[in-house]
Predict the structure.
Amino acid sequence: MATGRFEREIKASFTKEELQAICEALGVDGSEAGQSSTPQMRRLIRAHVGIAESPEAADDSTFRKADLQAVADGVGASFES
């Protein structure tokens, strides 16, 4: 049996409060994010950090590793894998 290395896909699911905190850290307009659902906030975050061209064009699924790196860069944090 051969063993090999593979890259595990990292997914991150955040609570509504955590997503609101990320929006605040990114400076996303509070009126946009204030009463938004979690999928709406994920779209706003993706658009704000440049993963998507607009919130309407953004994916609303949980964040993947590349998304997390872009969000970390957006808030000025380091991201270790």
